[in-house]
Specification:
Number of strands: 10
Strand order of the largest sheet: 6-7-8-3-9-10
Strand content: 15-25%
Mean pLDDT: 89
CATH architecture of the largest domain: 3-Layer(aba) Sandwich
Distance between the termini: 31 Å
Bound molecules: adenosine-5'-diphosphate, magnesium ion
Helix content: 25-40%
Structural class: alpha/beta
Radius of gyration: 17 Å
Shape: globular
Largest sheet: 6 strands, mixed
Number of helices: 11
Low-confidence stretches: 1-16
Number of domains: 2
């Protein structure tokens, strides 16, 4: 069974406004201290499918995900999640709205076991189901349930991070560089998992260094260059040689 068959009914049950965008940023500027990193960023993420954000190192991709998840305040502009204005809402309220960030570097609780990581993220009463689903998606986790997460390989930790994200049954999953530092065979597993969630009633916003692979996965794509959007449109359009060269040729080696 693929992750998609399992996600559909659950995600649908928790969805509040299935037709509107999962996310809308309007004129967002944000940064650290007084200098903006993001400048006047406006983008829409549809309620299902995959949206890619690509761009060179330091362009502001992780900063963008922090703004969406509420970890970094905006200097200007607004953030709407599933039609609700959340610009001033703290991160924990946005979690309640179904936003889930899988940060760069995995974001698992290294000192907790695999099972404890999954149980912590699961909704009440859904703990065993969350563990079962994780093992079904990533069988290797089944042999590691009692192992401390921090002692696993990077790939296993990424599988745990993705399973823990799904355990919350989120509406909008933000995934930051899931393939970073992983062996190619594990990168394949991660992309297979992300592909398995396509078409569900859950929106994925994915940042990844493997630009061609993430564009092949995505429906929509945005190019971030030095904190501003240079392209927003169909991922297939950006993947075409001319457009790719124009927006990413000099900047991205992937
Ligand atoms: N915590 C921070 N404090 C100050 N500057 C930061 C911080 N995090 C990132 N930056 C700066 O913001 C810019 C964008 O960084 P980031 O969003 O991490 O880019 P990307 O994820 O696209 O590589 C970079 O110039 C980076 O140095
Ligand atoms: Mg980053």
């Amino acid at each position: 069974m693929t992750p998609s068959t399992r996600m559909t009914s659950k995600a649908a049950a928790s969805a509040g406004s299935p037709d509107g965008p999962a996310l809308q940023l309007t004129g967002v500027s944000a940064g650290y201290g007084t200098t903006p990193v993001l400048r006047d960023v406006s983008l829409t993420v549809p309620p299902g499918g995959v949206t890619a954000v690509v761009g060179p190192n330091g362009a502001g991709k992780s900063t963008l995900l922090k703004v969406i998840s509420g970890l970094l305040p905006v200097m200007a502009g607004s953030v709407e999640i599933a039609g609700a204005e959340v610009t001033r809402e703290p991160a924990e309220r946005r979690v309640d709205r179904g936003v889930c960030l899988v940060p760069e570097g995995r974001g698992v609780y290294r000192g907790l076991t695999v099972r404890e990581n999954l149980v912590m993220q699961a909704r009440r009463g859904q703990e065993d189901a969350a563990v079962g689903r994780a093992v079904e998606m990533f069988p290797v986790l089944g042999t590691r349930l009692s192992q401390q997460a921090g002692t696993m390989s990077g790939g296993e930790q990424q599988m745990l991070a993705l399973s823990a994200a799904v355990a919350r049954e989120p509406r909008l999953i933000l995934v930051d560089e899931p393939s970073l530092g992983l062996a190619p065979v594990v990168v394949d597993v991660v992309f297979e998992f992300l592909a398995g969630m396509r078409g569900d009633d859950v929106a994925l916003l994915v940042v990844d260094q493997y630009v061609h692979r993430v564009l092949a996965l995505a429906d929509q794509a945005h190019v971030l260059l030095r904190g501003a959007l240079a392209f927003s449109g169909p991922a297939a359009e950006l993947a075409e040689a001319d457009a790719f060269e124009r927006y990413l040729g000099e900047e991205v080696v992937a």
